[in-house]
Sequence to fold (475 residues):
Amino acid sequence: MSATPVSPAPAAQTGTQPALKRVMGPWLLLLFIVGDILGTGIYALTGQVAKQVGGAVWLPFLVAFVVAMITAFSYLELVTKYPRAAGAALYTHKAFGVHFITFIVAFAVMCSGITSASTASRAFAANLSDALGLALSGTVWITVVGLGFMALIAAVNLRGVGESVKANVVLTCVELTGLLIIIIIGAMAIMAGQGDVSRVLDFKTTGDGGVFWPVIAATTLAFFAMVGFEDSVNMAEESKDPSRIFPKVLLSGLVITGVIYVLVSISAITLVSPEDLSEGETPLLKVVQAGAPNFPLWIFGFITMFAVANSALINMLMASRLVYGMSREHVLPPVLGKVHATRHTPYIAIGFTTLLAFGLITFVGEVPALGGTTALLLLCVFTVVNITVLMLRKDTVEHAHFRTPTGLPVLGALTCAFFAGPWTGRDMVQYEIAGILIGIGVLLWFITILANRAAGVHAEPPVPSEEHVRIGSKN
Fold:
């Protein structure tokens, strides 16, 4: 499965620019990965997963974990083989060498960031209402608060926010604290004989009594909670000896988050029925209320809001920088690459991505549709990544690297493609949202290419450099 590295891959130089500083050892990288995966998904979608599958809400999270783990093996071979910061766009370009395919993968990653941030804004508004007792009833008020929250994210983004490893450690600890509270409350309730543990084996069935398709439908939502691990490849140039440490650290991070999600799911369904858990957009707040009625609800509400707010900020940072990077490579209109004279931030790209988020929050709104669209876009990207592993096997590099068994990329491509299909019971609105977003990108791409040809400008494949993609999370 792996090769013993003879030496770390050399640090990349960009023109005359110095290489990125390798500051991340295995423990800091592990915290980064865990923090990148944890976020809006488990906080906001647990109830919707229960709505699809019933009491066995832990099973879709487990299936999503297995699918993510298979694809992680493909990422491990690629990141240790090409320890650079451009991720899926780089691998696609190396494998296919087709400008348009590389652009579509890069733009899909950008769109997944916007849909994820929109999901987080909706979850933020709902948790603010419930935690502080504001009674923001109805879709309109939740939408208004969500839009205000996204505007605030844009303002922070415009001002200029640099993500650091130390900040990520703090944010990870906060997110972990909220989930550990749920696990502890659940464990104490079970030991005290409260709740109904038998619900964890109750399945929602189809008309013929089958459980397969309800589990599959629920997994398409639960997968949103597992994405984020793929962003760790963007830290390859800042990790110490990535060819050696990445495999064990990435796999450990996935296992840790998978165990946490299963335990949170069991605690939630033990204390709250699937029907009650699926109502509203603050499922874990209901768990706290049911299992620890004396626990200050506003504290957990703020933990949840902090977790989803961080997800939204990171995703919008990533999305705006990807748009900026693609503009600078002449594959999106040049106006999107403009930088503010004093703030030194890509203000047009920030405005563009924020407007897209506004549209999603206003006209789509619901968390399942937005979270499901994020998972759909990334499942398509993961399908391509699994294929690129096999296509790049003939490409040799000088340093030793991780090599995944050939069967895993094949299985990964098939499973990701399967879960992206309409036969899973995925709501068709998710395809509509994804299609509209990608359609906007394709239209802008054609306009840019035509303008470039008229001006005699040669467009480069949209493989963003490290400063454009080092920040990012999908959930």
Residues 29-459 form a domain with the Amino acid/polyamine transporter I fold (CATH 1.20.1740.10). Residues 1-20, 465-473 have pLDDT under 50 and may be disordered.
